[in-house]
Amino acid sequence: MRSRYAGVIAAGAVLSLGMAAASAIPAAASPRAVPGAGGAPAPVAAALAVASVAAPAVAPVVASVTPDVSLDQAWREYGDSGGQGSWAGADGTYSVPIPGGHDAWLFNDTFLGPVNADESLPSTAGAIHNSAVLSSPRATQIGTFITGGTRQDPQPLVSPPASGATASDWYWNTDGIVDQGHLYVFEQENGHIDSPPPFDFGQTGMAIAKFSLPGMHLESVTPTYGGTDVSWGVQLLREGPWIYIYGVENGGGLAGDQVHLARARTGHLLGPWQFSTGSGWSSDPAASAPLLGGVGASYGVARVDGQYVLATTGSFLNPQIYLYTAPTPAGPFTGGTKIYTPPEASGSIYTYNVAVHPELTGPGKLVLSYNVNSSNVAELYANINNNRARFITVSFARP
Questions:
Q1: What is the DSSP code (8-state) at residue 157?
Q2: Residue 373: count of CB within 10 angstroms of its CB
Q3: Are 380 and 13 in contact (CB under 8 A)?
Q4: For 219, what's the count of Cα atoms within 13 Å in the CB-facing half-sphere?
Q5: Is a pLDDT exceeding 90 seen at residue 23?
Q6: Which stretches of 129-195 are DSSP H helices?
Q7: Contact, 180 vs 267, CB < 8 A?
Q8: Helix, strand, coil content of the chain in percent (nearest 5)
Q9: pLDDT value at residue 377
């Protein structure tokens, strides 16, 4: 089982919650198994040609990095103003533009309101492992909080089946994308392992949840590639007829995690996929080769001025945020320029898991978020701002 630290809440708070089943799903795929109609296709020995994407010769140059106080404050006010069973704070913080001019924000371990006047949580405050929130562009209006269950008894938006040896497993959202009129959200399945808390969990599988739009009703959950090896879908990027699916594999210890990349044709996100071998593409998931090492447990990729920018923290809770650039979605990624040091990271408070939000800005800029958390759960209950994302805006020198 692959030990992960994405989206962690201190042991005894959220990770120990019992999980309720949201729907019945097929049996989990075996590690690196190939899903799709008619069973697993045979591996392709020859790598497929790497797609060429035109890009300027000069990589984007960072001109400035500034905290996005307005976005921080919007989520702070939203969390503080809710009632019983409302969104109070969370990690994850992936955003997906959906039809109708809205954004769907995908969260992981989510504390439930109400929030006290001093921004502490009642000792009875509950939590669920994943949720979603709908907002207007740039979160100028943050509205519907979406979970499973009811407002009186919220449950995770998506849950594994509650049966067998994995009955206590849970899902964390990774990124999502709209394809052929539906929202697809990648789900990392996790279970408890025999390791010291708060990192006493590991990945047990991957799945893709399919939601109707605009209602965000869960239609299906389908096991997918990854197994215990690669957490797929930390970033989804549409380019022409392809959806690029970025993943992360645990590199072991302080060496940091490794970037993997797959792609699927639009309309075929459930499979089959092609996997980057470093020199081409293969339909064999075992042929997937790391494109970059030393990244955090989750990272973001966005197109900026014709090039591709990868934003990540350092390895294993190193709070520094770095940028890499590449001429194509498949790399090669170079640079690793340190652009920001989150001021929140101190003592038991740590920061992690960068996500990109290109829909929030115009040309030459990119909004990033990073998660804030604590290894001491009492600090989260004392001040829920210790479990709310922070946002920064990166401005690039125009070519």
A1: S
A2: 28
A3: yes
A4: 12
A5: no
A6: none
A7: yes
A8: 10, 45, 50
A9: 95
